[in-house]
């Protein structure tokens, strides 16, 4: 049996919040078909993630790429794709 504190922590997790947002999204479709959900979620999450990591790293791409677990070339490509300046 899970404690109330554990359930509260689970609700704070990104995984829980994404699931909650998707359930809301599907409910609001009101019978319309969902399409390209994977691409939509990636676009909605990737840009703010990159922006926040770059701010956290004060624009240091080497540090940001390590935090993100991607190489610097991929990071530069994504920053250009989303028109994100260096922090």
Plain-language structure description:
The chain is an all-alpha fold. Helices cover 71% and strands 0% of the residues. It has helices at residues 4-12, 14-28, 37-56, 61-68, 72-81. α3 (37-56) packs across α4 (61-68) and α4 crosses α5. The chain is flat, with a radius of gyration of 17 Å. The model has no long low-confidence stretch (mean pLDDT 91).
Number of strands: 0
Which blocks of ≥5 consecutive residues have pLDDT under 50? none
Provide the β-strand percentage band: under 5%
CATH topology of the largest domain: Arc Repressor Mutant, subunit A
Number of helices: 5
Mean pLDDT: 91
| Largest sheet, strands/sense/barrel | none
CATH-defined superfamily of the largest domain: Homeodomain-like
Oligomerization state: single chain
Rounded Rg: 17 Å
Give the overall shape, derived from the CA principal axes. Answer: flat
Portion of residues in helices?
A: over 70%
Determine the N-to-C terminus distance.
Answer: 44 Å
Q: How does the helix and strand content classify structurally?
A: mainly alpha
CATH architecture of the largest domain: Orthogonal Bundle
| Whole-number tally of structural domains | 2
Q: What's the order of the H and E elements?
A: HHHHH
Give the CATH level 1 class of the largest domain: Mainly Alpha
